[in-house]
Amino acid sequence: MSNYKTTLQKILSGSSDANLRFSDIRNLLLHLGFDERVRGGHHLFRRRGVDEKINIQRDGAKAKPYQVRQIRSILLKYHFGDSK
Questions:
Q1: What domains lie within the chain, and their CATH numbers?
Q2: What pTM does this model have?
Q3: Residues 38, 80: Cα–Cα separation, whole Å
Q4: Other CB atoms within 10 Å distance of the CB of residue 29
Q5: How far is CA 38 from CA 12, 23, 54, 82, in A?
Q6: CA torsion angle for 53, 43, 28, 66 (degrees, to 10)?
């Protein structure tokens, strides 16, 4: 299974919100067609057809767990797990 699919599966399952690497989430969002803008430590992601902005920050090498939960809700709302 590709790294993108593995990361997507981990996010959607909700089983390891505190143990997801920032770089894996960033790469997944870029793979899904999101555009990235960096402002300081904030990585902001936008995509046509998605109303919400995604904001992630590093917590060491990991992403912040509450931001992973926010990403999960957006991915589920727009059915990203269905076709990937």
A1: 3-83 (3.30.920.30)
A2: 0.92
A3: 23
A4: 23
A5: 25, 14, 12, 29
A6: -70
- In this predicted structure, the answer to whether residue 35 has a pLDDT above a threshold of 60 is yes
The pLDDT assigned to 82 comes to 77
Q: Which of 80, 22, 29, 20 is nearest to 53 (CA)?
A: 29
On whether the CB atoms of residues 25 and 64 are closer than 8 A, the answer is: no
Identify the residue with better confidence: 36 or 3: 36
Helices (H), the chain: 3-13, 22-31, 65-77, 80-83
Contact (CB, 8 A) for 58 and 75: no
